Amino acid sequence: MAKKAGKLPSTEREYVDVVIRDTEVTMQGLATPHTYTPEKKPFRFNQEQVEELALAVELDMNAMLTGPSGCGKTQLVLQTAAELGRPCVRFNCNGETRVSHLTGQMRPAMVEGALSLAFNAGDLTVAVREGYWVFFDEIDMASPNVTGVLHPVLEEGNRTMHIPETGETIKGHSDFRVFASGNTVGYRAKHRARFAGTGPLNSALLGRFGMVIACGYPSEEEEIERVLCHVPDLNPLYVNSVCRIAATLRKDKSFHTDFSTRSLIQWARIIEARNKDDFRSFELAILRKLESATDAKVAKKAVVKLFALEEDGEKESKP
Prior knowledge:
Number of domains: 2
Distance between the termini: 56 Å
CATH superfamily of the largest domain: P-loop containing nucleotide triphosphate hydrolases
Structural class: alpha/beta
Number of helices: 11
Largest sheet: 5 strands, parallel
Strand order of the largest sheet: 4-7-10-3-11
Strand content: 15-25%
CATH architecture of the largest domain: 3-Layer(aba) Sandwich
Radius of gyration: 22 Å
Helix content: 25-40%
CATH class of the largest domain: Alpha Beta
CATH topology of the largest domain: Rossmann fold
Low-confidence stretches: 1-10, 313-319
Order of helices and strands: EEHEHEHEEHEHEEEHEHHHHH
C-alpha cells in the first residue's frame, strides 16, 4: 500500500467544485487538500473516462476499471483524487496480501503504564471511518480470504466494516468510495494466462461493483499528448514516431504483447536522457522485455523501418 494512514480524528470538511483538467467534468473536491491526497503527476485525462468515474462517485457506486496493462487505470483514480484534494489509499493486491493488512491487528502497547495489547487500525479501517477513497490495484490477484472481507464494505448504500478484535462495527463515511482494477476482469478473462497470479473473481464480489469503466489504450493523438506530459522538452517528432510504432504493432495480428502507454513513456524518457533516437533506446525500453521471438522480430522490423535505423544503432545512410 502507498501510505500508512494510521488513525486520524474526523474533521469538518469544506467542499468546492473542481473542473478536472483536460475535461469539462466538474466534481466535488476539498477546499484544502487532505494529508493523504496523492501527489499530482503528469497525466492526460480522458473526457469519457472521467465522466464515468464522476458518475460512480456521484451515485456512490463501486467502480471496477478494466483494460490492458499500463493503459492508465491506476493513475486515472489517483490523479482524479489529486485534482480534488481527496485522500486516497492504494492497496497493491497480491497473493501475500492478508486481511490484517487491510483491517489492522492487535499489537503490544503501553496502556496506563502497563504493557498490553491494543488494536492498531489498518488503512482500510481508517478509510471507511474517515471517508477516504480506496483503490484496490489488481484485485484479481488477491486471495478469496481477502476479497471475502470486502463484501460488507462494498455494499452500496449500507457500507459497514466489522472489527472482530474490538467488536466494533464501523459505518462507512459518506465520502468513502471504492475503486478497483483488474487486468483479467470481464471480457479480458481470456488473457489470464498472460498475467501470472491472477484468478477469477466470484460473482458475489463482482456483482458489488455497480460500474465497470473500460480503460483501453488511447487514440494515437491522445497517446502523443499523454507521453508529452512526461517529456515536454523532447522533440515532438520523436514522440510521434514512438506512438506510431505502438499503434502499428497493436494492429498487427502477428504481434501479441501488450504495448502499453507506460512502455512508450519509458522509451521516450530514455531517448530524451540519451539524446538519441537509436536502436539501443528501443532495446532498453522495449525489445528486451519481449518474451516471444516472433514479437521481437515483428517489433524490430517496424522500428527499423519507421526510424530508418540499422540494428547496430546508427541511422541508415541516405544517398
